[in-house]
Design brief:
The structure holds 2 protein chains of 2 kinds. Chain A is of the alpha/beta class. Chain A is 37% helix and 21% strand. Chain A has an 8-stranded mixed sheet with strand order 6-5-4-1-3-2-14-7, with helices on both faces. Chain A has a 7-stranded mixed sheet with strand order 9-8-10-11-13-12-21, sandwiched between helices. In chain A, β2 and β3 form a beta hairpin. In chain A, α1 packs across α5, α4 packs across α6 and α15 packs across α18. Chain A is globular. The two termini of chain A are 25 Å apart. Chain B is of the alpha/beta class. Chain B has an 8-stranded mixed sheet, with helices on both faces. In chain B, α3 packs across α4. The longest helix of chain B is centred in the first third of the chain and has 14 residues. Chain B is globular, with a radius of gyration of 21 Å. The chains are: A alpha/beta, B alpha/beta. The interface between A and B is large, with 72 and 58 residues. The complex binds thiamine diphosphate, iron/sulfur cluster (SF4) and magnesium ion (MG). The site of magnesium ion has 9 residues of chain B, from α3. Magnesium ion binds next to α3 of chain B.
Chain lengths: 592, 299
Amino acid sequence: MSESFVVGIGGAAGQGVATPGDIFAKIFSRRGLHLNAYNAYQSIIRGGHTFLTIRTGPQKISNTGDHLDLLIPLNQDTMDRHLRLLTAGGACLYNADLIQPGTPAEGVQLCPMPVSKMADITRNKVGQNTLAIGAAVNMMGIGFSVLEGVLAEQFRKKDKAVIDENIHLARTGYEYASKNFQALAWPLPMTDARYAVLSGNIAMAMGGAAAGVKFYSAYPMSPATGVLHWMASHARQAEIMVRQVEDEIGVVTMAIGAAHAGVRAMCATSGGGFALMSEGMGLSAQAEIPIVVIDCQRAGPSTGVPTKTEQGDLWQMLGAGFGDYPKVIAAPLDIADCFKLIPEMFNLTDRFQCPGIVLCDLLLSEGRLSVDPKELDFNPVIDRGEMITSNGTGDHEPYKRYKITESGVSPRAIPGLPGYTHVVSSDEHDEDGVLISDEYTNAGKRRAMMEKRMRKMDGIAASVPPPKLHGPADADVTLIGWGSTHGVIHEACELLREAGISANHLAIRWLVPLHGDAILDLLRGARHTIIVENNFSGQFARYLRSETSFVPDGNIRKYDGEPFAPHHIVEAVKEQLAGKTKLSVPAHEIMV
Amino acid sequence: MATETVVAPKAITMADYKGRVDPDWCPGCGDFGVLAAVQKALVELQIPKHEVATISGIGCSSNFPGFIETYGMHTLHGRSLPVATGMKLANHAMTVLVTGGDGDGFGIGCNHFVHTIRRNVDLTYIVMDNQIYGLTTGQTSPTSRIGMKTKSMPYGNIETPLSPVALALAAGATFVARGFSGDQKHLTELIKLGIEHKGFSFIDVFSPCVTYNHDNTFQWFRPRVKKLEDNPEYDSTDWAMAMEKSVIWGEEIPIGKFFERTDLPTLHGAEPVLNSGPLVHQNNRIPAEIAQGFVQELM
Ligand SMILES: Cc1ncc(C[n+]2csc(CCOP(=O)(O)OP(=O)(O)O)c2C)c(N)n1
Ligand code: SF4
Ligand SMILES: [Mg+2]
């Protein structure tokens, strides 16, 4: 990875970690810098420990990295836990009235601020934060006017007195730093680029709007709630019907009702809510009504760790509901992809009249990334598939909703048209929608219907590209990942290369259908293969084996709730290449 | 000069609403009477069949959509109401009927029942209440009476049945009625009133299961049901009076329109997103300047 700069801010929930985070994010993106941010927190509103990491730099930032360049601890706890992440050239800015410094690594500058002597902040609970921001901006070599503008914007809904007070505090910190602290070694450059900064949840919600979603239903559940919040606050402008429903069973079935009426319908949840939706997934497939469901994975099972990340829902998605039915499952590779994938998924589900699952996770859902606004295309291809939306001259053959066709797709008449009344059904039915499951059971018809529906999988597979190998073809090691690990594996490959180990990367985006043969072709020549995933049992490794019989040389897994850092993967690869183990489970060094 | 002939639209008849297959209900099942009453109500209201959606869950009674020619949907056990809500919100020009059983609506689907009422979704919900699980061959339902012996409670039910009418009233329903499959004329009138009501209309119908419920039969109901309409003192705008009548069960069981209020908005009426017409006919592209605004918020 080219040059980057990492800021960490931590404190108890309620101490105001988010605002400095937003301010830094704005300052960086205004300078035309990329950024990637991740907030580690717990499921409490006050107390606990929250730690926000923002990494910035002139090139795309694929993950939040391994170390810090600037630490702003808002309490003692943060100082104690995170000081060791600072490396030579870094600095720690803290309120010397409240916080005892620890012993930093060599070359790290301790920057104590005598806050009570600098300003009267008895009435301003987060005054110390603003002082620290001012000081930090000075040390980064950024002019004060930039910060002044961002502060005015950040507090625009507050009284002028509040804005003035914050600007005053920031200036005090700024000036104090210029007299007392050393500037940081790598001043942040400027570029002409301008990026949008967004979470994966916002990206998926906007991707839905771009795809023409007209109906969105949800029941709150971390880490998916952000999709609901964006949808609800933009519903009127985007003309999207947004409903909060009594439970996830109602969520998915309401979406199916809306989809049957002819609109694109979407919903999002996490593993527990998805479990309630699984019967609905079968209804979507059996009645042939397309919907898109987003699952934002969090650490399970059961209520699990609601604010921590994991890739532990893959088998729930693969096995959702009972019986065999056609479906599509894809995992976005990064936050920009969260946006892009939604219209692609809708085009498939509409064309093949089946459910689609977007398998995201907390790392992407709640992480933030700078994205080129050009990548947020609100004019994507919209392909609604074979739909009958007008009754033309009124002359047509008797309509059969489930007409048996070669592709398995039967044209879908939208309710309300004269001449096309029909029944759609969760019970097995014949071409006409008449139930065959009770009195009229007919093995031949059942078989024909099963085969008709399952034929759609061939069409879907032909519409989805096989994955590609990134990096040198004859690498020493091939790292295989799926979904959100894309960014960190990408950086791990670079670090390995710098350490003299050539590495390439196979990133899986489309999980169902899986291009097993193409994957085998790519892996056949690989020297040493390792599957990297954020779960205990190697869910993807087991899936790949079940589909292809492929067994990797080793696995790297993590299931402590925190995402991988690049060095976790690098060290694990080294130990595996040295023959020390076939399964590495890197320890998360910091308690967050 | 050519004279223009105005062709009167063909009147809608019972034949229009005849389903593709004949019902597979047991001979004598109460649900036949409900089907006929719904068909009659639609004919009397002269609603074209393509403007009607009939949505059900799972059960004997829930096979209903297959036996009437409309846009039918046979969904999941207990889930007809959220599906119907989605359908109505996406195309509020449709007349949406929801049909099902007591197990479907008050057992597995009770959560949706309460919340759909609360939202005043403009649906007509007709429950064929036979106080039993028919399709699964005779188990206790949430409306089975205490002491009733079924396959799942062979020594007699010990759980208090709920009153669907009282529950609907308590949840804030804007139209609540009870009918009897054995009195088709009366039932047809109730269904017509329900369809015409703007908002959620709930009609609990005694629809005897002749195969599995030997307690609450046609013969049992017939002498007991008393029409509220025959009581000149009864005022169906009086919620407290309706509540009082809703729990009467014994020698006399009231049927008829218990309650109606017309002052509350429907869900689709209260949602400004639908001001420009049914969702399904709206443009699905976000106008460029609005999309630009969405991105600008993030810069
Ligand atoms: C999730 C689920 N659980 C159980 C069933 C089995 N089941 C089908 S119908 C039914 C009960 C039907 O009773 P009711 O709704 O009163 O309808 P009736 O047959 O009496 O008309 C049950 C339990 C099912 N289809 N789905
Ligand atoms: S079992 Fe009962 S409810 Fe079902 S069709 Fe027969 S009589 Fe009707
Ligand atoms: Mg029943």
